[in-house]
Amino acid sequence: MRKLIALALFVALACMAAPALAQKKITIASDATWPPMEYINSNKELVGFSVDYMKAAAEAGGYEVEIINAAWDGIFAGLLNKQYDAICSSVTITEERKKSMDFSIPYFTVRQAIIVPKDSPVKSLEDLKGKKAGSQISTTGTFAVNKAGGIQSITFDEVGLAVEDLFIGRIDAVVCDDAVASNFIMENEKYKDALKIAAVLDTPDAEEHYGVAVRKGNTEILELINKGIEGVKASGEEQILINKWILAEE
Known about the structure:
The protein has 250 residues and is of the alpha/beta class. The chain is built from eight helices and 15 strands. Strand 3 and strand 4 form a beta hairpin.
């Protein structure tokens, strides 16, 4: 009997000493220049809708997440070079991008918006023919301007730089995602009395979906992220985040 008790005690102690199974840690890159989706606040913190969404997805999916700030112009190369596991940076899922990377299920839907001065008569991309339209380089805002044709496309490293050039009169419009356009106009004291949203594109193919990008064939990371996103949607946390960051409700 003493031997059995001693054996049971040994097994119990061994189990207590064994380290808990470590969770998978996913490193996600984000270009923090795109409020209210992802940006650096006045306290130098990386915050925004996408940031909170990825943290909530990690909790729902049972993994850890580290979100790092990365410049847009090298963000996709960094993914391919394995500097991080994924990108969550208001990246629209497109057929062209799917050729070089895989995407999660969508976590947000947007359309392109046109920002112009308050006194501008512009109401559509057609009205911008022969004028200068700014956008962040290699984004769907730039793609929309180029697709329209006849518009002089001026690209910037950050959408905020484009909005500032519009404000001082160097360009005639800025084309960017509608949530971002609303933030720059409604939440910025400097711009809200000088700029307006002239239009939001409403053609049948205008709706865009954000997804988390991963390297081609990285099914382990993709499955974990999808599990997390599904959990955020199912729990109702997604709507809470929309209310907080997009609708600006507390």
